[in-house]
Amino acid sequence: MNFSEWGRYTQRDTDGLLKNICREVTSGGMPLSSYTPLHPGSTLSAEDVKTLCDWTNAERARLNH
Length: 65
Hints:
The protein has 65 residues and is mostly helical. It has one domain (10-63). It has 2 helices and no strands.
């Protein structure tokens, strides 16, 4: 995903990318395990995950109108 190219993605692409953001943080896939040792405190709390998923869901709803 490239936010600089966001306006060029199709609606289907943006919907899938937003779903993937929530899926990745919910499954613990982000941040990457190779990133966290060098960046203490970069792990996501349950509240962080909820905030990200709430945002992606709201954005998907906004874009799908």
